[in-house]
User: Which sequence fits this backbone?
């Protein structure tokens, strides 16, 4: 073959400067592309062998060898794949964006399965020029009597092609790294990149360093393989130990017999797991394998709660494993990671087009060869097919959770505190997920039991019906007698009481329990927007109300309205004066529990508005947080001895101090005091105890 020179044939829409500068967002991705090309070449050769068009040598091993040379600032990739002829080099290398994989599939479309071929665009090779000033190719085709070819190019514009000297079928690509890319001549840096992108490629990948000292290992002589390089064989002496026998005499006992050993060149260890767990059928996988895979991929020492193994062949090919980690922290701080693969080639983390937003709280891997990737394999073309994949993943997650609720309720409840933020977030973000999960949302009540919202509503209605006499609407009776419809009346929403802090709201919880009432525990940040969604649902008509937002009639005794009005006016003036709060709203009630002196209530609507404003402020909206306070009502119990004392001694010496103490006690049961308020409360408590000692 004569020396040939020329310019690369570049189509106007695939200009090389674009390829070199910003086709790939991450420069380290060239490793993935070149290794992927090697995998493609090996896959093609295997298919030719299956079709009877090629016979493997007896010692053939499918592999990709990556070698770094810090001294020469080079990096090479050698595969044992299909190789190229001179004509193929001209066609696939000299013409940018002509895909060898595409051409191969077209030629053998009736004999092969394209899902196993990674490359589709023919641009991967040129990613090498992002980091290299010069690139060479040495290749030998599988075809009989093919001649080896040498190709090189500096800068990626001009090339030289000549006879090569490669002896084995396959291709070696060598990168002469540019000065600003010499980091890629470091074996630890390349190992990091291979583990990032190529950990699960279907071919063994080996990494070596040029000129590195030979390493050795010792094995049992019986375990020597044909490909081992044996340095020496030797006998390991038996191990003995001195012990006392039955007669109390010491004797030497053999605890390990002599063994035949061999010192061999250290066996290369592949950086690629060629059969990752997600490629296996779920029935073939053990729990320990799932957990081990989780630890390996995500470096998470905590065990996952459970997992979903995705395995679909029609209407598209998708496999993967989704893990449910513990997610019971604040949902805005959660960070999951879903790794997306294409034919075992890592593409990216958390691609939102494929993975619904709420699933980003999970950890897992998804491998979908059918994904319509763009030329850099790093992003997805946005089409209806991608939406179908997203919908399928959502459905499988919902099916797993609903199935657990139906057949394994005990574990469902056991995991609920950890998975509920994820489920609620999913309901808020994805309508289809919400539709599938709405009947499987559970809540913990004051008895530490899990119930559904319809069960709570039914219990509350049953309690209300048993406590209240039946009221007959005369107008409805008249309409029924006249044969007219009475169903037009809109059903009043049922009040659902809830708790956000068991310790802080303990006083209110005790009041509820004393009256046989129940409430739901909603302590997570996500519960506030979630209950708003539930209130807008047409399935169950409910209105959520925190237990400290008002007093239920069941907690109060009937009393003379006029008397309560006068007491409210009297104590209102006393407390406003003592506290210096002219706008404070005070109510006097006859509470059944005479041990309770004072309580604070804040309407549900006001509190939700305050929470929303605080959230906006925390988000950097620059609002004045001082405007968030106020709006509360101080409830005073006319049946309590302390309150009666103040009513009888409005001008007493220590009344102001008692008023402040009762107010702070009520506030403590509602929310934490500020630092200054707490300091005053402690000082005042000491003063009151000192008064008791002086009696």
Assistant:
């Amino acid at each position: 073959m004569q020396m040939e020179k020329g310019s690369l044939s570049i189509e106007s829409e695939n200009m090389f400067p674009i390829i070199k500068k910003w086709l790939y967002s991450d420069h380290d991705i060239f490793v993935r592309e070149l290794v992927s090309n090697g995998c493609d070449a090996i896959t093609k050769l295997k298919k030719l062998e299956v079709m009877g068009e090629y016979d493997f040598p007896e010692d053939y091993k499918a592999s990709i060898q990556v070698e770094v040379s810090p001294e020469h600032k080079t990096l090479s990739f050698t595969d044992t794949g299909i190789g190229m002829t001179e004509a193929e080099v001209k066609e696939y290398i000299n013409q940018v964006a002509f895909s060898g994989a595409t051409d191969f599939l077209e030629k053998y479309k009736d004999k092969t399965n394209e899902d196993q071929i990674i490359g589709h665009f023919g641009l991967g090779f040129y990613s090498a020029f992002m980091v290299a000033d010069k690139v060479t190719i040495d290749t030998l085709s599988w075809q009989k009597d093919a001649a080896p070819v040498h190709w090189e190019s500096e800068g990626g514009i001009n090339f030289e092609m000549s006879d090569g000297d490669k002896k084995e079928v396959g291709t070696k690509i060598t990168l002469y790294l540019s000065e600003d890319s010499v980091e890629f001549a470091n074996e630890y840096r390349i190992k990091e990149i291979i583990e990032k992108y190529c950990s699960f490629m279907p071919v063994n990948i080996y990494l070596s360093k040029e000129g590195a000292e030979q390493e050795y290992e010792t094995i049992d002589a019986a375990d020597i393989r044909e490909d081992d390089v044996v340095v020496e064989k030797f006998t390991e002496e038996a191990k003995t130990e001195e012990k006392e026998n039955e007669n109390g005499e010491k004797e030497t006992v053999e605890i390990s017999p002599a063994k035949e050993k061999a010192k061999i060149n250290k066996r290369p260890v592949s950086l690629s797991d060629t059969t990752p767990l997600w490629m296996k059928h779920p029935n073939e996988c053990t729990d320990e394998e799932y957990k081990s895979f989780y630890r390996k991929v995500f470096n998470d020492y905590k065990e996952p709660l459970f997992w979903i193994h995705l395995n679909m062949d029609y209407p598209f090919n998708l496999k993967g494993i989704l893990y449910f980690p513990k997610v019971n922290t604040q949902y805005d701080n959660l960070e999951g990671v879903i790794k997306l693969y294409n034919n075992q080639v890592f593409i990216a983390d958390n691609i939102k087009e494929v993975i619904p937003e709420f699933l980003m709280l999970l950890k897992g891997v998804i491998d979908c060869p059918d994904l319509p990737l763009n030329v850099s394999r790093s992003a997805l073309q946005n089409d209806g097919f991608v939406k179908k994949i997203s919908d399928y993943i959502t459905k499988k997650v919902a099916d797993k959770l609903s199935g657990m609720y139906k057949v394994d309720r005990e574990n469902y409840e056991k995991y609920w505190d950890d998975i509920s933020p994820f489920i609620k977030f999913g309901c808020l973000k994805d309508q289809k997920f919400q539709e599938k999960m709405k009947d499987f949302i559970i809540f913990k009540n004051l008895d530490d039991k899990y119930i559904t919202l319809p069960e709570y509503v039914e219990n509350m209605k049953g309690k209300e019906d048993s406590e209240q006499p039946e009221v007959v609407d005369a107008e409805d009776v008249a309409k029924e007698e006249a044969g007219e419809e009475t169903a037009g009346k809109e059903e009043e929403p049922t009040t659902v009481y809830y708790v956000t802090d068991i310790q802080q709201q303990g006083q209110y919880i005790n009041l509820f329990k004393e009256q046989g009432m129940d409430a739901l525990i909603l302590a997570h940040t996500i519960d506030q927007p979630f209950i708003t969604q539930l209130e807008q649902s047409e399935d169950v008509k409910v209105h959520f109300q925190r237990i400290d937002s008002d007093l239920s009639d069941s907690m109060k005794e009937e009393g003379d309205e006029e008397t309560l009005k006068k007491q409210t006016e009297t104590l209102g003036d006393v407390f406003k004066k003592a506290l210096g709060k002219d706008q404070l709203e005070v109510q006097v009630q006859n509470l059944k529990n005479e041990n309770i002196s004072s309580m604070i209530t804040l309407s549900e609507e006001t509190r939700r508005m305050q929470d929303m404003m605080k959230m906006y402020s925390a988000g950097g909206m620059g609002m004045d947080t001082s405007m968030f306070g106020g709006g509360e009502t101080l409830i005073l119990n006319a049946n309590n001895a302390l309150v009666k004392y103040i009513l009888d001694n409005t001008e007493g010496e220590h009344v102001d101090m008692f008023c402040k103490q009762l107010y702070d006690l009520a506030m403590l049961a509602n929310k934490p005091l500020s630092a200054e308020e707490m300091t005053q409360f402690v000082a005042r408590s000491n003063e009151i105890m000192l008064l008791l000692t002086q009696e």
